[in-house]
Structure formats: C-alpha cells, structure tokens
Amino acid sequence: MSLSLNRTCVKHCPQEKKLISTVKPPINCSRSRCNVLLNNDFYNYLACNDSCLESELASNGSCVSFCPKGYYYLNDTCLSTCPSYAPFLQPTILTYQTWERDWNVYRVQTYNLTSLTCVGSCSKPYTIYDFQTNTCTVQCTDTRPFILEVNFTLTCVQQCPLSENVKVHGKTEIRLGEELKTVNSIHCASYCPNDTFYFNGSCLMACPSEANHIFDGKCVRCAKFTQMIGKLAYCVNDCPQTMFENGNVCVETCPKGNAYIINRRCSICPEEAPFQLPVILGDDKCVKSCEEDNKLADFSCENCEDAVNAKCIYSFKCNKTVMINYDGKFLKYCPNGYLFFRTGCIWKTTSLIISLVSFILALTIVIYSIKVIQEYIVFVYSCFWIPVSTA
Length: 391
Hints:
This protein has 391 residues and is mainly β. The chain has three domains: 3-119, no CATH class; 128-206, no CATH class; 244-346, no CATH class. The protein has one helix and 37 strands. Strand 8 (57-59) and strand 9 (62-64) form a beta hairpin.
C-alpha cells in the first residue's frame, strides 16, 4: 500500500503522523448545491497525518467517514468500549458528505447515519435508559414496558414496584432527525397526575368505552347522573341548579321531543297533561290522567316519580312481582307515609292499628286457650278420681 507523506510516497506512516486519511478534493456547497468535478479533475489517495480531516473520524489508526459496526462515537473518535465518564450509549444522527461517480463526473452525496454515541447521561429525545442494553432510548421494549424514575434517571423495568404501582399512560410526539414520531409510554407512579383518569390500576388520558364517565378522577359507569364538561363525561349525584335532568344526563337545554320541563326534568308531555298515552295509529297523546283511557300510570321508568315521561299502560302489562298497584299507578315503592302490606300500600297509621289489633287478638286466643286447657285437665282428673273408703 502506497501512502503519501509530505508529497512523498512511503510504505508506512511514521509515529508522529500515524493516522491514515483519505485525501479527496474539497467539497464546496452553497444553497444546497455542491460543486461537480469532471473525471480528470478528481483525485483520491491515502496520506499520513497527525490528525483526521474535519469530516473524518479516527478509528484504529485510520480516518473513516463513520464508525464501523461494534464501535461507538466519542469526540470524533470510534471506540470499541465507552469510558467510565461516558458509559451510556445514545443514538446520534451523523451527517457526512462524499464524492460519488455519476457517469463522466463526480457529484457530492450527503448521508445521514445513526451512530451510537458514548454519553454521560441520557438526553432528549432519548431520555429513557435501558440498563440491560446500556442504551438510551425513546421507548421501552415489550419485555420491560414500564418506565420508573430511579435517582433522577428514567429506566425501563419489567414490573412497577408496589410503592409506585399506578401506571400512567402517555403519548408524546418526538422528532428523530426529519421524522416526527408518536411514542406511547407507561410510567410507574404513586398517583394519577392531572389530566389523567384512574382505571384498573392505570392512569389513562381518556376513559375506555366500558367505563367512559369520570367520577372523583376515576373512569366509571355513572350510578345517577352524567354531566358533560367540555368533551369529558363526569358522574354527579345531582344535576346543577342551572341544568335539567334528561333521563340520567344533565343538560343545559332540554332536547327537541323532550322539551317540556317538570320539576327541572325534561319531559315529552307538559305539566298540565304529564302522562303519555300510546296511540296505535299516530303520535302518542299527552293526558292529564291515565284513568281517562281506563289505564294505569307506569312509574317503572327512571326519574319519573313526578309523572315525568310516565306512560299509560294496561294493568296486565305490569310486572306485579316487582311493581305495586296504588291509586291508579304502578310504583316501584310506596309513597312517603305508606307501607307495603300484602298486595298494596297502606297508611302507616293503619298498619299500626292492624298490628295492635293482631297482637290483641293473638293475646286473647292465648288466654282463652290456657283457660280451655285448665278446664280440660280438671275434667280428666274428675273422671279418673276414685274416692277413698272410710271403713
């Protein structure tokens, strides 16, 4: 191999200039356009130097455009092992330019290559440290999917510790060179941060369909009412005074077709004729009382205690095993001041009188029974008693 040393050909480089670099024509680029050389103007030879050219990296006594496989970049040098002061490996995008032949001319080509760089700590966008691969990364692997902060360093772990067993799901957009990438992450935490909601041990940015309402920062199915705040659905025990109940949803304005309001509840019918009377042919009618059509008011619907959205039905359509027929209505429960007794609702005072009469009757029967038993014992005794002779 012939080498150039001070414009002289040598076989070996001396110790003071032991680095072998490739000498090519300089590259001049302006406004994204680089110079072009004819074949006769291009040159390429190896030279002995004490340092590599500006666009080269030192690797095993030679100057190269990029580090070979198994070597890592640090301070314009390719290393097989990172030093103790920079022990972590972090991907770095390196740009280099080279001459390439294009028919009878040489043109400049630009390449972007990702190389592993030795660093003292992980930095953006590669902020997560994977201790098993000793690499800074943007996303943990499936075998160690969770991110745990240890001594101010984000690390990939297989399981979250019990002290930080709440899993915070996040989504971040990061730029890798010219590429914009969306990265999903799961952090270990002791509580859910703001703008996330707890569900099955995880903190989510949005609640799933099976529990798409929010109550006390948790994803749930609402037991009472749903109130929309922005695009989020929250569970509340009562609708605010400025809103109305439309079924189990709090609304600011009752919707069309349910536009009447009875006691802050949206109703199909107005307050003066609150009951719905189904019509076989045509639209349902609103009536003052279901008794007008010899029917009963069905109060089995939710939130219809005040005749809101209650329909008129025939008595045989009512489920008598769970409903109570009272005063022309089928109710879930007896009204205030009444108790369920046998097949219907009775006034609480009436139930007290019935209980008292029942007690007195039972006591009378017991006393009468005791007296009858005593008389029966005397009768039996008199039948078998034999007088004693007085001879």
